[in-house]
Structure formats: structure tokens, C-alpha cells
């Protein structure tokens, strides 16, 4: 079956630090990969996605590259801001039930000024 | 509407009571999904609708859980005879295409259910 393993949190960084949140997956077929973000008091929002191997998703300064050989989709940002404080979820969909998202447990990021 | 709207935002109920959670998707969105998220976990799939048809209910944990979307818009997730283990955040999402692999799902803010 499908599964997503992501870096345990919480992660605490100072403003302008470099961010990496690791995500690895197990999936049948050829999954699409996603990062969702939940800001305090809000719903889940799609941050970025990649649909095939070697694709790079990017948005708001965040990037993640679909690595089939290592089954990974690590989230990175070169310089985090206080406003990036949120919970980040790695997710995938795959196979015949391609509408069904499988999520990791989430990683809480806190950025201090 | 502007986004996916869920109500109530918070619900506290006594064990054994029935609860109904409502989801109002983005206007015109064909597909609607329900997920459940326990504390410290990621969301887990419960069920999926295209228009009014329930296409997949494989994630519903037992027969106390049911969902409907009678007119292909608003959906209700009902939990009968609630138990403490049902306490969780219940999330609804909608998308514009029928379960397409790359279609973005838009999530509501969720309903926090606490069973006491």
C-alpha cells in the first residue's frame, strides 16, 4: 500500500535560516507528490506538487524535487520567514484510487525573529 | 462560496449521541472528499463523492459512519452512537474535476469533534 514518512518535528529555526523537511514514500505505480501547509487557524492549502520523476515543484520560495531513485520529495527553502511558521504535510496519490491522498504525519515549523 | 466551508467548527458531544458534520464545497466543484485527522497524525481518507454519487467509502471505519451528498453540493457526515475514539478533526475537501490525478483538492478549516 501507499505510505509517506516525513521528518519528525517540531523544527525551530531563526529567520533567514535554511529549511529542509525530509519526506520519503512507498507507493504502487507512479504517484503524484504534494506538499500541503496548514497555517494557524486555517485549512490545509496546497503548497506545491510534482507529477513525475525529476519534476521540481516550487511556490513561495519553497522547492521540492521528485526523486524516484530515492523515493523522496524533500521540501526546501533557502531563507525562512516568521510567516512560514505552520504545519507541513507531505502527501501522494497513486494507483487506481488516484483521488485518494495519503498523508504523512506533518511537521511543525516555528520560525523565530 | 469563496472556499470550502465546514460547520460547526467545534463540536462537543456526549458519548452515545449522534452528530452531523456539514461541508459546503466550492461552488461548481464536482468532487468532494472527507478525511479524518487524529491528533499528531496526518489526515486519513474516509469517503469520496462525484456529484451526488458516493464513489468510494472504503475509509469509513465502521457502520456508525455514513455520508451523503443528495444534490451534488452540500455533504453531511453522520456519526451515530459516538464513542470517545471518534474524537478527531474532520476535514472536507473539494475539487473541480472527477478524481483526476493532478487535480488540486481545496480543504476547509475542519470540524474539531470531541466526544466526552
In words, what does this structure look like?
- The complex is a heterodimer of chains A (113) and B (116).
- Chain A is an all-beta fold and 113 residues long.
- Chain A is 0% helix and 50% strand.
- Chain A is built from no helices and 12 strands.
- In chain A, the strands form 3 sheets. In chain A, strands 2, 5, 6, 10, 11 and 12 form a 6-stranded mixed sheet that branches.
- The radius of gyration of chain A is 14 Å and the shape is globular.
- The mean pLDDT of chain A is 93.
- Chain B is mainly beta and 116 residues long.
- In chain B, 0% of the residues lie in helices and 47% in strands.
- Chain B has no helices and 11 strands.
- In chain B, the strands form 2 sheets. In chain B, strands 2, 4, 5, 6, 9, 10 and 11 form a 7-stranded mixed sheet that branches. A 4-stranded antiparallel sheet of chain B has the order 1-3-8-7, with no helix packed on it.
- Chain B starts with a strand and ends with a strand.
- The mean pLDDT of chain B is 93.
- Chains A and B meet through strand 6, strand 10 and strand 11 of A and strand 4, strand 5, strand 9 and strand 10 of B.
Amino acid at each position: 500500500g501507499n505510505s509517506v514518512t516525513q521528518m519528525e518535528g517540531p523544527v525551530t529555526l531563526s529567520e533567514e535560516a535554511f529549511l529542509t523537511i525530509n519526506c520519503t514514500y512507498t507507493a504502487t505505480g507512479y504517484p503524484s507528490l504534494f506538499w500541503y501547509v496548514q497555517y494557524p487557524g486555517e485549512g490545509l492549502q496546497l503548497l506545491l506538487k510534482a507529477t513525475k520523476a525529476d519534476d521540481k515543484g516550487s511556490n513561495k520560495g519553497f522547492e521540492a524535487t521528485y526523486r524516484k531513485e530515492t523515493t523522496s520529495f524533500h521540501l526546501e527553502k533557502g531563507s525562512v520567514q516568521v510567516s512560514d511558521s505552520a504545519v507541513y504535510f507531505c502527501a501522494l496519490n497513486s494507483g487506481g484510487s488516484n483521488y485518494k491522498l495519503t498523508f504523512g504525519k506533518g511537521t511543525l515549523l516555528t520560525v523565530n525573529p | 462560496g469563496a472556499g470550502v466551508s465546514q460547520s460547526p467548527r467545534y463540536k462537543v458531544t456526549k458519548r452515545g449521541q449522534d452528530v452531523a458534520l456539514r461541508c459546503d464545497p466550492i461552488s461548481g466543484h464536482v468532487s468532494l472528499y472527507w478525511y479524518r485527522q487524529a491528533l499528531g497524525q496526518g489526515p486519513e481518507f474516509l469517503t469520496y463523492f462525484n456529484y451526488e454519487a458516493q464513489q468510494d467509502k472504503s475509509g469509513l471505519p465502521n457502520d456508525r459512519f455514513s455520508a451523503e451528498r443528495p444534490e451534488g453540493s452540500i455533504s453531511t457526515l453522520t456519526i451515530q452512537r459516538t464513542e470517545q475514539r471518534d474524537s478527531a478533526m474532520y476535514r472536507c475537501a473539494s475539487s473541480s474535476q472527477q478524481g483526476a490525478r493532478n487535480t488540486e483538492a481545496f480543504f476547509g478549516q475542519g470540524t474539531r469533534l470531541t466526544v466526552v
